[in-house]
Amino acid sequence: MSSRLTVADVERIAALAHLELTADEKALFTRQLADILTYAEQVRAIDTSGVPATAHVHADEGAERDDDPHRSLPVDEALRNAPDGAPEAGLFRVPRVIG
Amino acid sequence: MLASSARAIRDDVAAGRVSAVEVCRAYLDRMEAVNGSLNAFNLIDPDRALAQAAGVDRRRAAGEPPGALAGVPVALKDNLCVRGMRTTASSRILERFVPPYDATVVQRIERAGGVIVGKTNCDEFAMGSSNENSAFGPVRTPWAPDRAPGGSSGGSAAAVAAGGVPLSLGSDTGGSIRQPAAFCGVVGLKPTYGRVSRYGLLAFASSLDQIGPITRTAADAALALGVLAGADPADATSSRQPVPDFSAALTGEMSGLRVGVPRAFVAEGVDDGVKRAFDEALDTLRRGGATLVDIELPHAKYAIPVYYLVATAEASSNLARYDGVRYGYRSSRHAEQGLRAMYSRTRDEGFGAEVKRRIMLGTYVLSAGYYDAYYLKAQQVRTLLRRDYEQAFERVDVVATPTSPVPPFRLGEKVADPLQMYLTDVFTVSQPLAGLPAVSIPCGFVGRPERLPVGLQLTGRMFDESTLLRVADAYERMTDWHAATPPLWS
Fold it and tell me: Has residue B3 got a pLDDT over 90?
């Protein structure tokens, strides 16, 4: 099934993942992801009817705490690693979103 | 002094036989000397380390308790945050990231008197089995300059193996502590999921990731785990299970111990030399008083596909945060084309090939139409795998396998074929999926004239690191593999 993975599939996934791939990368990933998915096909043959999914091994251990305020990261520190921070405004700057 | 264990250093510093500053200087010299050929460190910070060491000496002089790691130099995998110390995950996208906070394990090490000396090289975002996926170049195993140290915590393992530090921390998602420990001839412990807080660990796959120590002896792993373990309000998945005295568990006693051997699982695809070393190790355990019991783990053979479906799905979600806005690299190409173009170019230029491959795979298996067939199915098989172990642990106390089916392979040997690289993780991916603790300890060598180390892996019950460490330590008392030093050492 996965051997049917096409360059168009890879382009669709790359768009979902916000990755702008080069033509070479698209060709390479189409082949490599098809190999990996073909290998992974074997899990689909296992009978899992009635078997619950494990998302997390300690899923039943609660982690509640009192809703007390804690110190959080000050704005100036949070902005210090920003590639285009505007500390005077306390904001991250991004390219124009709305024309 | 360089050959000393963390425990011996701590004892000497606590007793005033040597100062923390003297220890730190000697290890810094050693690190500088070996790093040129190993590329084990992304960053060494002598000024900060010496200042920390001086603080340890000052507190001792003032009569304060010296701490369980007093004066012990510690290297951290470069995906663990230290406030003010560049932390990159060996990725271009974080090349200039300076964390504004400390990981919980960093706080715990420093509170115990440990001295953080720098950050070790690793596969980018901990994704890899050879350390070749680092943006800062591959690490080499100190045993052979043309061979991989394993991954992803390759720098942490190589640094310990070459005597650069007595203790380093790695992170393990599918074997990333244990496999490099095996390839470098040292001890690597992946604790039970939740045993150690993940706060401040750059996330790869959050249901699998766990931080653990890499050391030269099981006793040092016990010492380190005692410092690292315990509940943390900053990590909701850290466990409130009581933390036992791991060092007290090291009795040297193996009689009555039942060691499970999944014969069918280890029968295929294992290098002859590795198989010989493994069989010899089983014989040693038996001579030490343990009983070998044949067991079956019927779903273990599916652990690799399950792992690569679950881990990449989680990674694709976790790595969505690297978008060029809040931290890290931002592409400057065609900024006028808007926000989405900026995201996509930033991520294409900032991530390396393996990280992109895994984000792509994870995005695919979570996408509409494939979720049930791949991701949900993998999570169900994950349950079957957990049940296999639960059944096995009704009959045995630990499970033994080789850590890796192959000895350290040549750099470049597997980079062109990612699937072949993934297949080498066959013995290390099932434990994180089941949440279980496991340790790799040196158990022999293969090859001539080069001596390439082989690791024995022991897997334990949930939160039973004590038994694992007891067996590992008892095995060390019967053998001298852990004491062997690579050619680079001298």
Answer: no
Chain B residues near residue A43 by CB distance under 8 angstroms: 302, 305-306, 309, 374, 377-378, 381
Question: Is B282 domain-assigned?
Answer: no
Class of CATH domain A2-45: mainly alpha
- Owning domain of residue B189: 6-254
Task: Identify any residues that bridge with B187 across adjacent strands, giving them in sequence order.
Answer: B215
Kindly list the residues from chain B whose CB atom is less than 8 angstroms away from the CB atom of residue A46.
299, 302, 377, 381, 384
Helices B303-318, A23-40: inter-axial angle, 10-degree rounding? 140
Per-domain boundaries in chain A: 2-45
B332-361 confidence digits (pLDDT tens): 887 788 999 999 999 999 999 999 999 999
pLDDT digit string (tens) for A3-58? 589 999 999 999 999 999 999 999 999 999 999 999 999 999 999 999 999 998 98
Q: Which of A22, A52, A58 sits opposite B193 (nearest CB)?
A: A58
- Chain A residue numbers with beta carbons less than 8 Å from the beta carbon of B297 are none
Mutate to test the interface with A, among B380, B385, B422, B433 (most CBs of A within 10 A): B380
Q: What is the pLDDT of residues B168-225, one digit of tens each?
A: 999 999 999 999 999 999 999 999 999 999 999 999 999 999 999 999 999 999 999 9
Distance CA B34, CA B121 (A): 14
Distance CA(A17)–CA(B357), nearest Å, equals 11
Under an 8 A CB cutoff, do B326 and A22 touch?
Answer: no
B interface test, pick of A57, A66, A75 with most B CB neighbours within 10 Å: A57
Indicate which CATH number applies to the domain containing B109: 3.90.1300.10
Q: For residue B486, tell me if it sits in a domain.
A: no
Please tell me what DSSP assigns to residue B263.
H
Nearest residue to B123 via CA among B409, B304, B351, B318? B351
ipTM reported for the complex surpasses 0.85: yes
Number of separate domains in chain B: 1
